[in-house]
Structure formats: C-alpha cells, structure tokens
Specification:
The protein is α+β, with helices and mostly antiparallel strands. It is built from 17 helices and seven strands.
C-alpha cells in the first residue's frame, strides 16, 4: 500500500520530495510544479526515471507505470533503454505513416530530381510534361499505396490507340516511380503499371507493336560500315571516338554520351550500366572486344569529370548532336546515330547463325515472354561476346 493518497497529492504545495514507496516519489518544485520520479538500481548503479507530470499522470497511473518498470527490472531490462526504444519506434512509425501519405505527384518529382541529372534537358522537360498531361490529373493526388490497376486503365485507355507510344512511355514512367516508392517502403505488392503478365492482358498488344514499328531510323547498309569506320579513325576527335564506340557496341546514343569511367572494367572487358541508365530500366552489361577496349583506352581522361565524353552544357556531357554533326560533315547527312543498331542487326541476321534472342539481347531487347523469362534468365553475355567480336572484326576489315 502506498504512503500517499490522491487528496494529499492534490494539496501538497511545499517544495520537496514525497515518498510513496518502492522507489516511487512525488517531486514538488518551488514553482508548484509536480512530477513523478522512480528510483531503482540496475547492475549496482542507482538510476532515476521520470514518469510524467501531475495531474496529467494521476497517483494511480503513476503506481501502475512504476509497477511496469519494476517488472522490466525483474526481467533484467533497463527501463530507461526500453522507454528510449519505444519512443524511437513511435517516431519511426509516425514518420512511416507520414511518408505513406506522400502524393504520387511528389514522388514523381522526387524521382525526377534523383535521376534527371543524367538526362538531357529536353528529355527532362518531356518526361515531366507527359506526367503533367496524362498521369497527374488521375493519380497525382493519390498516395503510392492507393494506386491500383483500375487507375492505370482509366488514364491509359483513352490514349492507348491514338497515342500508343506516348501512353506506353507514361506507363513506364509510372512503373519506375511506383518501383521507387516500393523500395522506400511506401507501398507493397505488385506494381499495377507492370506490362508483362499484367497490363499486356488488359491493353492491346497489337497497338504497342504498331507503335514500335513506326519508329524507323535511317540506317547505313551494313556493307558500308567498314568504310565509315576507316574514315572515323582518321579523325580521332571526341565525337569520332564516341561514334566508334556507338557503332562497335550497338549502344544507344544516350548510353554513349553519358558513359562514365566507373562503368568500364577493361580487365574483365565489360561495360556495366545501371538500371536507371537503360531505356528498359533493367541493368545491362555490354561485352567489350579488343577493338572496343583499344577505343576506350584512346579516349583522354578529363580531370574533374566522371564522363568519357564531357561537355560544357548543363548536362555536363558531349552535345546531343555532336556525332550527328560529325557524320553530316563527312557527307552522311541521311544517316542517324540510332540507325547503326539496325545496321548491326541486319548484319547479324544475314551473316551469322546466332539465335535471334542472342542478337536481340545484344541490343538490350529482351523479347522473351513472362513464362519463358521465368525459366531462361541468362543475358547470354558470353554468346554476345562472341557475336560482338565477329561484328567488330567485320567492321574493321578491308
């Protein structure tokens, strides 16, 4: 039975410490403020722990709280450490709850800020503009965990047939943003914007294939590429070296423009690109042949830059039209940079016996369906190394 009673606690005004028993005491300050204090011993050391102020914490509740802390001591637990852990857990839970209320529009801008530094200014503006036009009006004010397949269908279906390519780009952007949200613990479960095995069952695949076929780029006949390579080797400027790397690897122009030194392992003969560097948002490794390694070694390192081809603009890399301007200056005005991927693919199809999936994977096209991909997970690196070795040998032949 405690020494204090509720009426006594209410009427105490003289400054001092008043014992209730078993280490519980009421501390009255000269200002009149009253608070509860628990004294205990742990590992031979005397400790003190505040249990709250009176009257917010009544005598009854103070005794209950003191009893709970003494049970901690019996179990060998430090009540102060346990309280700190509880407070930390509550703060983390509160932060997590607040984070889960972040709207899709905010998450999109976070993703744009985190990854947009490696994009061209034009791509940065276009990336956000598509979301502003097609996504934000439907899901901009929703939290990540609130977005469902029905929301995706509502925003994609009206433009899927008339603007299929744009619609698929918006779908891909939403998929990236929701994947990032899941990594931050802001949503669980499947990504409702995923195409394979999900939206491909709900939206026309035919329209998507038509949109891809409409994307044609003027390509140099593969028979003429060796002549161009010989001409490029007479220049050996940064745009020329970038063009050679582009042609030999079959990479996309932005992959070459933003290539970083830390992505290359010249001993292992690999060029490893992180998922945010790939159009498909899947990390990819390009095998390097001896000719490619020689080309990379010929590129001068610029102090203070992480890029193989640094530039003076906002992007920090070579101008987007540097290779095109070089080709135009050499008289190849009808040829595009992207077209060299077609030159490689036509050569591979006509002059080699490598399986289609290997040739497509060399261009970072994984066209295996969901079922096939579940069992065949290889990226065919060694087979692609052999294929690219034959390609670079051919384009350096006379």
């Amino acid at each position: 039975m405690g020494k204090l009673n509720p009426k006594q606690v209410e009427n105490l005004t003289e400054a001092g410490t008043y014992e209730d028993g078993d280490g519980l005491r009421l501390v009255v300050k000269a200002t009149g403020r009253k608070s509860w204090l628990l004294r205990f011993q742990l590992a031979g050391r005397r400790r003190e722990m505040g249990l709250g102020s009176y009257p917010e914490v009544s005598l009854k509740n103070a005794r209950l709280e003191a009893s709970a802390k003494r049970r901690h001591l019996i179990d060998g637990i430090d009540p102060l450490a346990a309280r700190d852990q509880e407070r930390t857990a509550r703060r983390e839970a509160q932060r997590s709850q607040e984070a889960k209320q972040l709207k899709f529009e905010t998450l999109a801008k976070d993703y744009w800020t985190a990854h947009g530094g490696a994009w061209s200014e034009r791509w940065r503006k276009g990336w956000m503009r598509k979301l502003e036009l097609y996504a934000f009006p439907h899901i901009g004010k929703l939290a990540a965990e609130q977005i469902e397949t029905s929301h995706l269908l509502k925003l994609l279906q009206p433009i899927w047939v008339i603007k299929t390519r744009t619609a698929d780009e918006v779908r891909g952007q939403i998929e990236q943003i929701l994947d990032a949200a899941k990594s931050r613990g802001l949503r669980e479960g499947e990504n409702p914007a995923r195409w394979r095995g999900h939206l491909d069952n709900l939206l026309s695949r035919v329209e998507k294939k038509k949109a891809r076929k409409r994307e044609h780029f003027p390509a140099m006949p593969w028979q003429d590429v060796p002549t161009l390579m010989r001409q490029l080797k007479t220049h050996m400027t940064a745009p020329s070296l970038a063009a050679q790397l582009l042609i030999m690897t079959g990479a996309r122009a932005h992959m070459v423009r933003f290539a970083r030194w830390d992505e290359f392992d010249l001993e292992a003969c690999t060029w490893s690109l992180a998922d945010e560097r790939m159009k498909t948002r899947v990390a990819f490794t390009i095998p390097l042949t001896d000719e490619i390694v020689e080309c990379v070694r010929a590129i001068p390192r610029i102090e203070g830059s992480h890029f193989l081809f640094p530039g003076q603009g906002k992007s920090g890399v070579m101008h987007a039209n540097a290779i095109r301007n070089l080709l135009h200056g050499m008289g190849y005005k009808s040829i595009t940079r992207h077209g060299f991927r077609s030159s490689f693919r036509d050569w591979a199809g006509e002059c080699t016996n490598y399986p289609r999936e290997v040739c497509e994977m060399a261009l970072a096209h994984d066209e295996r369906d969901q079922t096939e991909g579940a069992y065949s997970r290889s990226d065919f690196l060694e087979k692609r190394r052999e294929l690219m070795s034959e390609w670079t040998s051919y384009i350096h032949s006379k």
